[in-house]
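Anyone have tokens for NAD(P) transhydrogenase subunit alpha part 1? Sequence:
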Amino acid sequence: LKGINPGALVIAIADPHGHEAALTEIAGTGASLFAMELMPRITRAQVMDVLSSQANLAGYRAVIDASAEFGRAFPMMMTAAGTVPAARVFVMGAGVAGLQAIATARRLGAVVSATDVRPAAKEQVESLGAKFIAVEDEEFKQAETSGGYAKAMSAEYQAKQAALTAAHIAKQDIVITTALIPGRPAPKLVSADTVAAMKPGSVLIDLAVERGGNVEGAVPGEVATTANGVKIVGHLNVPGRLAATASQLYAKNLYAFVETLVDKATKTLAVKWDDELVKATLLTKDGAVVHPGFRPAETAPASDAPAPAPATDASAA
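Reply: yep, here.
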């Protein structure tokens, strides 16, 4: 941080949730920090959406890693020596990562099913040839925000969903979990009891392990094997396991955003501080944390002013 000049622009995946002290330290340098993962979900910002570009790769890589750990064929094969059954893959979370995992597993010949708390996900899942699994009650019907994210579900709904999926998971060969909620620990979707009921040789891929994990027993950065022979894969930075492609897409995301900060005529920086992209992603400026969602308490809006809404949406991953 000592090498950052006051007034410099820093554009990155900043991971601001839970790192208030680090934000304050960065603000102290006088730099303007932009968090790419806070990019709004609007049409003009799609080319800058780092969450989607990286989650897409994570979903693909999750299936490749699962195939390697599974050690058996994915498609059904009918041979003179006998019939090899198709692998059964269950994807939990049908955001960008989940949908790519579904598509990839289908391409490899697996029988795929998936679940998500968003009603709109059902059509997306079925359009890819997978079976949709969910408790479709009234809460489920209201489980999506206007921005297309999933809301945090009640404990009662989570219990009903867990009961439905537990029996389904016991029949699966591979389970891939992708559920994340911005600013909060990842929801626990697969309990130790559910893992214990799975068949020996089954594989669990936890794409949320860096945020606490969706699977009980997942270890960040490790492949853990349970007493009943189930592998729980907790790879970190899964997009980085496809480093060249991940870097290529991330660079395009960054370039597209930087273009909006430059005057095309003079070829110089000309940040429009009132632009919706800037306001949504700007964390620090002029020595202070300025984003309403991360502003320190002493500089937060007065009690009679509208406070920023809490982040309760589920990630696109």
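The domain at 53-76+83-241 is CATH 3.40.50.720 (Rossmann fold).
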